[in-house]
Amino acid sequence: MKKIMVVDNEPDIVDLTRTVLEIGGYNVIPAYSGEECLKKLDKNSVDLILLDIMMPGMSGWDVFNRVKKKYSKMKVAFMSVLEISDKRKQVLLDEGLSDYIMKPFDKDSLLNKIDKILED
After folding, report:
1. How many angstroms separate the CA atoms of 52 and 103, rounded?
2. Contacts of 65 (CB under 8 A, 6+ apart)
3. How far apart are CA 95 and CA 68, in angstroms?
4. CA–CA distances in Å: residue 50 to residues 40, 59, 76, 108
5. Mean pLDDT across the stretch 107-111?
6. CA gap 53, 65 in Å, rounded
7. Rounded distance, CA 100 to CA 80, Å?
8. Peptide bond just before 104 cis, omega within 30 deg
9. Which of 6, 13, 53, 52 is nearest to 27 (CA)?
10. Chain-wide mean pLDDT for the chain?
């Protein structure tokens, strides 16, 4: 069973995403801050990190950069309400981001994106 860490400072988002992913057959590790994400990564190996960008303290951008330095092959996808340009998305993909998932999302589109990320 593939393991996915869901990182968001809003517990409702973590719970909803966890429920959808567990229905899809994934094992989920919740984290509610960037700092918690990094601590849990030291103790857990995961196949993918779903990461909110806008969090108090350590932002998703900071977490992404630290994860990529320490675990260069780790798959990371941002989840955000912020729209970005195709050009910016391409830069992020070139820097190692696996995908950019817009919130809110529906169950099927989220699972399809996760399945696709983890196939690669």
Report:
1. 10
2. none
3. 9
4. 14, 13, 6, 16
5. 96
6. 12
7. 8
8. yes
9. 6
10. 95
Domain boundaries, the chain: 3-109
Collapse the DSSP code of 28 into the 3-class scheme (helix H, G, I; strand E, B; otherwise coil) and give the result. Answer: strand
What are the beta bridge partners of residue 117?
none
Record the pTM.
Answer: 0.95
How far apart CA 50 and CA 48 sit, in angstroms, is: 7
What local confidence, expressed as pLDDT, does residue 120 receive? 73
Is residue 3 within 8 Å of residue 45, measured between CB atoms? Answer: yes
How many other CB atoms are there within 10 angstroms of residue 39's CB atom?
Answer: 12
Task: Please report, for the chain, how many H helices and E strands are present, in that order.
Answer: 5, 5
Spatial distance between the Cα atoms of 59 and 111, rounded to a whole number of angstroms = 24
Instruction: Tell me which residue has tokens 């918690």.
Output: 36
Domain 3-109 in this protein, CATH class: alpha beta
